Please model this.
Amino acid sequence: MPNASSRIRGILPSGKDGWEVHFTAHARKEAGEDIIMLSVGDHDFPTPAETVEACVTALREGHHHYTELAGLPRLRAAMAKISTRATGVATGPEDVVATPGGQAALYAAVQGVLDPGDHAVVVAPYYATYPGTFRAAGADFSVVETEARNGFQPDAEAVRAALRANTRAVLINSPNNPTGAVYTRRSLEALAALCVERDLWLLSDEVYWTLGGEAHLSPRALPGMVERTLVINSMSKSHGMTGWRLGWLTGPASFIALAIGLNLVTTYGLTDFVSRAAIEALENDYGVAEIAARYAARRTAFLDALRGQNDLVVRGSEGGIYAMVDIRAVEAHCEKFAWALLDAEKVAVMPGASFGDAAKGHIRISLCQPEPVLREAAARLRRFASEYKKKVA
Ligand SMILES: Cc1ncc(COP(=O)(O)O)c(C=O)c1O
Model:
């Protein structure tokens, strides 16, 4: 075979990627072991029935054809309306482009603002696909860690220190995967002021915008930010539609007009009947309040069940679908902790180190399990931590 391009070869680095605990646990569960899987972030419940019905109806009605590259006009209008609600900024259909999932919106944002050799700053801990997305654009990036002791809030001065002459963009994610941190107004204002001062794009991944507890704050709503913020959005988490692949990018209309070109050369538009179901789901908020309430209740159930075990310290964990637990008082090495927890108590979690240095010494807990399972997992975790300490002492 002739060589594949260095671009495509560079997307996924070879070697260890931190998912070994998850894949081992998954294989053992498939083989029949009673393992509680808290390592992945996909809903354990189906898409709301109304959305499914809307899709079936659209399919039966014959919506089987190509759609507009930027998304069906009514889909763009519905997305724009949600963006207005989510970001607090009046947003029209011309300010959004529909994409197959938030990941494709992120891809469009990165392709759209960075030339090969340009540089970006990524605030960590971050979602696992970020590095590959920059590599696919031939762009360079620096990681700026947040601090666990500050609840994983970003520090604009640390971002400033990482800027280079060729830095074009800063990428943030709030509510955050993996930490569950919800960035405060103060943190976002400082980052926004820096982006204005240095004429940078702010790529703001807000796919968990309905799961942050309080009213969502988008940096797009801050002074001077409408013209330099690209918001990555998705129906995966908010509307319970991970497998449907629906997302959108919101930004200045002139940028969005260019980004539509990416749909021409990649997807050639979204699936017709899926788009129509998405319109119904967006216009009627199918599942949104229920899903948000469900995750809020799960978070409370898990964190309450952990309370009183003083060696397990909860950090971030305010929103999204994850909780982050500092296990350093028990074991400094989070991967060792995760393997031992799997062996002793049959609970699969992600070692925090898989998400960057800031999350070292932590484990990430997915809340994608019913409350009783999360309570049981918390009980096993408590027992494990106490036993482990005794053994080591
Ligand atoms: C922070 C973050 N951004 C983006 C995505 C991509 O989501 P999707 O492509 O399903 O919309 C995810 C998925 O888990 C995520 O956690």
The domain at 49-284 is CATH 3.40.640.10 (Aspartate Aminotransferase; domain 2). The pocket of pyridoxal-5'-phosphate is lined by residues 41, 101-103, 127, 173, 177, 205, 207, 234, 236, 242, 247 (CB under 6 Å).
